[in-house]
Design brief:
718 residues, alpha/beta, OB fold (Dihydrolipoamide Acetyltransferase, E2P), nine-stranded mixed β-sheet, six-stranded parallel β-sheet, 25 helices, globular, binds adenosine-5'-diphosphate, binds magnesium ion
């Protein structure tokens, strides 16, 4: 047996089982060895049959009888059936699709059964439980998790799928552990680091995670692998950071005072968070290496104003060794409508200055000011725009992805702003930045997605982070209410009142979880259409109702958003995909249906749609749940002061939360666990930074280098 051996060379595996293994991503011995248990069976949970209740997940020891194969009455599903008895009573067991189990177990055998209790035809039954033969039924049941279980340790439970049971995985891994493969494994983490943080070696950790003798051992093992995951990501990120540090950048010498001429024209005064962010950025600008900074702030916290202010510092600076001309700024937004919006804000900010502003999107180009009217923007040809950008006459270019194209060349690009940066891939972001070979522009990435600090430190390890954790003063907080089904009409009344005052509303339909993505999309579209129809018929017959969902073409979506923005649509019924960052000042109400199905962070994002208004705005969180913990979770929407607080709350509450985690960031459950431990994340970052500082190519750490490269393929590090 070799670490790279395919599983079907090492174990006897039937074809359906092989498919199931593939589905779990398990193809080689190595894959299996690094397939960690999701939890450990708890011996203290051993129950008597008499005490079982529907819905329990229970562990019972007993004797098997009446075991037989049978076919479903109507369904024709092949199954094994048996009865299990202990001294307190008996219960039926059914194994759907697993008739072979009947052949494996002789009547009168002692077994351990673990699984879910359901009701079948009026009687309680175990359905598809785990079964394991045991020598005898334990008499005294241990009372601690890793107490006196029959094997001497608690047994791991693995995520399974139809065709592969947790038990199969367990036994196979135990074989691998005994097969000597462990001795061939090399630890990628330097011993010095393991010792410093009291982490077990790779070999020990693998044993401890799959066959722990004590609870603490399994926890240490998990800690090690969690550290490893974050450490790898950090190494990758620190490598990138170091790479950027080797480029040069335009050095901008502007003082805060000089910017005062620009900010004095604002109709508001900057918040102190905005002031601090501007100071930080100016400090970065004054260095000769390029800035890489992330500006994270709730919707409405005024990121654009910060970006415009520092852009002013750039465009009022001449290129080196020149006393004429301007350095250039590129500002990239994820959609045409956002790009258009930023173009308009920039015109507002810069119109008093001799600074031309360009807009480039897939559907056309514009320039401000127009030759004939110095107050207005005008459509121009793409080639004309590109010429002026290339010769430096247009210092500020706002755009969509169209900015990245090769044909767009700058004369002196000194500063790149990426709005809603999570909407772009790493590659797109890089492409924009690498428009010049020698001098790299300073980068300001902006996002309104509040994430926990540990996650930010990890996934944005290559960036310096600045928070805008303060809302402009005078902003009225959104009135947020959790609305139970019986109270829906009160919310509709508020909407009616708002609509008659000329305002607008969003209605967000619930997320429908469905494993098949195309089906999920179809269902979501259906719920949007149905809800729009219902609202029109039953609640708002006099109003214009529009819809927005993921199946519409990009252009269609943007048209609807534009109509909503123009006030032609009163109520927009949408899935949760409504455009990020779009500013519709008259939209003052948002209803979120089925709110319990959304993560807090997403709910907060949605609420952000109505934060822009100067009018009082409302967020009605419709909950169809009676679960106290769900309601409590939703209550934190009312309580949390800002997105960051909410993000921390979400992380703490959801455990290895799917929401933040895997889908979006490519982290494993263990990686998510690490995020709840700020000390661990900081340690991983610290060690990675030191290591990269001393050996950026990881020449002395070939195994680390190899692992990071492999992991990079798997995790999208974003
Ligand atoms: P976001 O962070 O969501 O991108 P914007 O920069 O678009 O926020 O700002 C939202 C609105 O708030 C804009 O109309 C902007 O002019 C205004 N704004 C920005 N900073 C302040 C401030 N310090 N005080 C009052 N209003 C502000
Ligand atoms: Mg914005």
């Amino acid at each position: 047996m070799d670490i790279n051996s395919p599983l079907d060379k090492v174990f006897k595996i039937l074809t359906p089982q092989n498919c199931a293994l593939k589905k779990l991503g398990l193809e080689t011995v190595e894959d299996l060895l690094f397939y960690f248990p999701t939890r450990y069976g708890n011996v203290a949970q051993i129950k008597n049959i008499k005490t079982l209740e529907k819905g329990d997940t229970a562990l019972v020891y007993g004797k098997i009888s009446q075991i037989k194969i049978r076919k479903g009455w109507k369904s024709k599903i092949p199954m094994a059936e048996a009865r299990l008895s202990d001294e307190s009573g008996t219960i039926k067991i059914v194994w759907l699709h697993q008739p072979y189990i009947a052949k494996m177990i002789q009547p009168e055998t002692f077994v351990k059964i673990e699984g879910k209790i359901s009701e079948r035809k009026g009687d309680l039954a175990f359905v598809n439980p785990e079964i394991e033969k045991v020598k005898k039924v334990p008499i005294a049941v241990g009372n601690s998790l890793f107490g006196k279980s029959e094997n001497g340790f608690a047994y791991p439970i693995y995520r399974e799928t139809r065709g592969v049971t947790s038990r199969w995985i367990f036994h196979s891994i135990q074989k691998i552990l005994k097969g000597g493969v462990l001795d061939t494994l090399e630890d990628s983490i330097p011993t010095r680091i393991l010792e410093k943080y009291h982490l077990p070696s790779l070999r020990t950790a693998l044993i401890w995670i799959h066959a722990p003798k004590r609870k603490e051992d399994s926890l240490s093992a998990r800690k090690r692998f969690a550290f490893e995951e974050v450490f790898y990501i950090q190494l990758q990120k620190q490598k990138e950071r170091k790479l950027y540090a080797e480029y040069s950048a335009f050095k901008i010498r502007k003082t805060k005072k000089e910017l005062g001429e620009f900010t004095a024209r604002f109709s508001f005064s900057l918040t102190s968070a905005q002031e601090k962010a501007i100071d930080k950025i100016l400090e970065d600008f004054s260095k000769h290496t390029p800035m890489s900074r992330l500006l994270e702030g709730d919707v409405g916290s005024g990121k654009t104003a910060v970006a415009a202010t520092v852009a002013y510092a750039i465009v009022t600076t001449s290129p080196p060794k020149q006393d004429y001309g301007n350095l250039q700024v590129a500002y990239m937004a994820p959609t045409e409508i956002l790009a258009q919006q930023h173009f308009e804000s920039f015109i507002e900010y810069f119109k008093h200055l001799p600074i031309q502003i360009g807009l480039i999107t897939g559907s056309g180009c514009k320039k401000f000011p127009s030759k004939v009217n110095s107050e207005k923007a005008t459509d121009i040809s793409r080639s004309q725009l590109l010429k002026w950008v290339e010769n430096g006459e247009i210092p500020i270019l706002v755009g969509t992805h169209a900015l990245i194209q090769k044909t767009v060349e700058f004369r002196n690009l000194a500063f790149v702003v990426i709005d809603e940066q999570h909407r772009f891939g790493t590659k797109q972001r890089k492409n924009l930045r690498h428009k010049q070979d020698v001098v790299l522009p300073h980068l300001l990435s902006m996002t309104a997605t509040p994430i926990p600090r540990t996650l930010a430190l990890t996934v944005y390890g290559d960036l310096d982070i600045t928070l805008l954790d303060e809302m402009p003063s005078g902003r009225k907080p959104v009135i947020t209410e959790i609305v139970l089904p019986t109270k829906r009409n009160t919310a509709y009344e508020v909407i009616k009142k708002e609509l008659s005052a000329g305002r607008q509303a969003y209605v967000i339909c619930p997320r429908i979880d469905e494993p098949d993505p195309t089906k999920e999309l179809a269902l979501n579209v259906k719920s949007v259409k149905e809800e729009a129809r219902r609202l029109k018929k039953e609640v708002f017959p006099k109003n214009e109702i529009g819809i927005l969902h993921g199946k519409m073409l990009k252009k269609e979506k943007e048209d609807v958003m534009q109509e909503f923005k123009n006030g032609e649509i009163d109520i927009l019924v949408a899935t949760s995909v409504i455009e990020v960052g779009v500013n519709v000042p008259d939209a003052t109400v948002i209803i979120i249906e089925g709110a319990e199905r959304f993560g807090l962070a997403q709910l907060h994002q949605l609420r952000g749609r109505v934060i822009r208004s100067t009018h009082q705005s409302y967020c009605f969180v419709f909950a169809d749940t009676k679960s106290e913990s769900s309601l409590e979770r939703l209550q934190s929407m009312v309580k949390a002061k800002n997105g960051f607080e909410l993000a921390e709350f979400d992380l703490a509450q959801r455990g290895s939360g799917d929401l933040y985690g895997k889908k979006q960031w490519g982290l494993t459950d263990l990686g998510m666990e690490a995020l709840r431990n700020i000390k661990m994340v900081e340690a991983a970052r610290e060690e990675a930074t030191q290591l990269i500082d001393s050996d950026s190519a990881l020449i002395d750490y070939p195994l680390l280098k190899k692992n990071i490269e492999e992991k990079r393929e798997k995790i999208h590090f974003e």
